[in-house]
């Protein structure tokens, strides 16, 4: 069952962000574009490569008005320890949400119940808290932050340009489509 065009779940949790612990809730997410990046666990192997990749694109996403939230079923204490231990994770400037209960992970539909961990799930959420893209990978398959940026650009374009859609590989400045009878069978 798809969660596209559904509201993100209600949540309040502790996060590690900019060297401090802070509470973050659904209320904090609303009003701006957001990306939720779920990953299985801290102190693992593929996870730091993905989070480091997102960290490398974080400034670009911020310029687009997007906040990033990484989420695992670890606690905010473990996120702090990982941040202090790993040069890759030290690059992270976005909030790292602790989800030890799994409530957020289950709410987004990416919990592996038998392991108590998340699948690799990436969700682009609009300012109203509605999921606009969902990408879910098995544990051994890493994601691309470059493609994430492109998806956010496309989601923002579609939200701001009623009646237009973005074709495959669309990037800002490329042509879009305006679905209608005149395009049927001509693409």
UniProtKB/TrEMBL annotation:
Localization in the cell: Cytoplasm
Pfam families xref list: 1-cysPrx_C, AhpC-TSA
Organism: Leptospira kemamanensis
Main location group: cytoplasm
GO cellular component: cytosol
Keywords for the protein's UniProt record, in alphabetical order: Antioxidant, Cytoplasm, Disulfide bond, Oxidoreductase, Peroxidase, Redox-active center
EC number: 1.11.1.26
Active site: 47 (cysteine sulfenic acid (-soh) intermediate)
Reaction(s) the record says it catalyses: a hydroperoxide + NADH + H(+) = an alcohol + NAD(+) + H2O
Domain Thioredoxin: 2-157
Molecular-function annotations in GO: NADH-dependent peroxiredoxin activity; thioredoxin peroxidase activity
Family to which this protein belongs: Belongs to the peroxiredoxin family. AhpC/Prx1 subfamily.
Protein name (database record): Alkyl hydroperoxide reductase C
């Amino acid at each position: 069952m798809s969660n596209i065009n559904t509201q993100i779940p209600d949540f309040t949790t502790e996060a590690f962000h900019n060297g401090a612990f802070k509470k973050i809730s659904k209320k904090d997410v609303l009003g701006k574009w957001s990306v939720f990046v779920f990953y299985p666990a801290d102190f693992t192997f593929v996870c730091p490569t993905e989070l480091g990749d997102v960290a490398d694109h974080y400034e670009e996403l911020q310029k687009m008005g997007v906040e990033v939230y990484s989420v695992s079923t670890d606690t905010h204490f473990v996120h702090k320890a990982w941040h202090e231990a790993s040069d890759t994770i030290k690059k992270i400037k976005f909030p790292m949400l602790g989800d030890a209960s799994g409530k957020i992970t289950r709410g987004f539909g990416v919990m592996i119940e038998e392991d108590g961990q998340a699948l690799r799930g990436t969700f682009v959420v609009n300012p109203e808290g509605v999921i606009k893209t969902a990408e879910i990978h098995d544990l051994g398959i890493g994601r691309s932050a470059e493609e994430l940026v492109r998806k956010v650009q496309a989601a923002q374009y579609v939200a701001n340009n009623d009646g237009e859609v973005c074709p495959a590989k669309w990037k800002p400045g490329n042509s879009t489509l305006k679905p209608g009878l005149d395009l049927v069978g001509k693409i």
